[in-house]
Write a structure and sequence with these properties.
Elements: H1 2-7, E1 10-14, E2 19-23, E3 26-29, H2 30-52, H3 57-82, H4 104-121, H5 127-152, E4 164-168, H6 176-180, H7 191-212, H8 218-234, E5 242-244, E6 247-248, H9 249-268, H10 278-287
Parallel strand pairs: 1-4
Antiparallel strand pairs: 2-3, 5-6
């Protein structure tokens, strides 16, 4: 570690076992725990803003359930597509989501499609505002879920000579054989930690926009753009497979999101008939009998 420490002044060692316990055939891992906690936190944040906006709790929680189910399916599906070689020997591992292995972009796509489909099917009012609220809840849930990724060390990043790096010292960590059990050990960029910080900054920006903007849907598309920009940059530090033109799959999706988002914002800002803004809807909601 001496040579490594000379290159990277601050090496953060994580020696936590990714697996908390194994009950029968069920493996309980930190990744699964923080994914569940992230879902609870995200739904709680969305419910808080939804109640303040006068949206019925049935609409909030039923839409949240659709978002969560769609997000889990989408997250695992895209991860499996990105890492098919890992599942050739044991295809049933596709369903072992509790052990780790999800794609955040898969969660965003699957959750958005499922939640939007449910809202349209039920013809829920204030569709755009519900999307804005879901975006704020979603980014908080993603930030919390990243804590499990940091503990597990399953998302490989490039080796670093920056002032900070991370080294996984538990042999059960996926990063251990590749980065630690070599001579000299190799510190990685703490890329998922960077993303956690970015998620929190995005939430702060979305909260300010939600308070200032009057048109529904703008906060949602701001989330799409800001997360895309952040993920595009941070992905250069990750060791994911190159897909096209030197870019990873997440970066290609991020580019698409960053193109679509401004177009959607332009559409929302087109002049239309007068509609009640958020402040007016909050006032009307407070006047409703409880």
């Amino acid at each position: 570690m001496e040579a490594l420490s000379a290159l990277v002044p601050l090496v953060i060692k994580i020696g936590i076992d990714p697996q908390i316990a194994k009950i029968g055939g069920l493996e309980i891992a930190w990744h699964g725990v923080f994914t569940a906690v992230g879902v609870i936190c995200g739904v709680g944040v969305a419910a808080f803003f939804g109640r303040r906006a006068g949206i019925g709790e049935d609409a909030i929680y039923n839409t949240a359930l659709a978002l969560v189910i769609g997000g889990i399916i989408g997250a695992r599906a895209l991860y499996v597509l990105e890492n098919l070689d890992q599942f050739r020997d044991d295809p049933l591992d596709v369903f072992a989501i509790n052990a780790g292995g999800i794609s955040i972009y898969g969660a965003l796509i699957g959750g958005t499609l499922a939640g939007g489909a449910y809202a349209l099917w039920r013809r829920l009012p204030h569709f755009g505002q519900m999307a804005d609220i879901a975006a704020m809840g979603g980014i908080i849930g993603m930030a919390v879920g990243r804590i499990g990724d940091i503990i597990n060390g399953e998302h490989f990043a490039k080796t670093t000579d920056w002032p900070i790096g991370v080294l996984y010292t538990n042999p059960n960590s996926p990063s251990y054989p590749r980065f630690t059990a070599v001579d000299p050990p190799l510190a990685q960029h703490p890329a998922v930690a960077y993303e956690l910080v970015g998620d929190l900054l995005i939430f702060a920006a979305l909260f300010v926009l939600y308070r200032l903007l009057k048109r529904d849907g703008l906060v949602f598309w701001a989330w799409v753009f800001l997360y895309g920009a952040m993920r595009f940059g941070i992905s250069f530090l990750r060791d994911d497979n190159i897909v096209f033109a030197g870019l990873r799959l997440a970066q290609l999706i991020a580019l698409g999101a960053m193109i679509v988002a401004p177009l959607a914002v332009g559409y929302i800002l087109l002049p239309r008939g007068r509609t009640a803004d958020r402040a007016e809807r909050r006032r009307l909601a407070r006047q409703r009998p409880s």
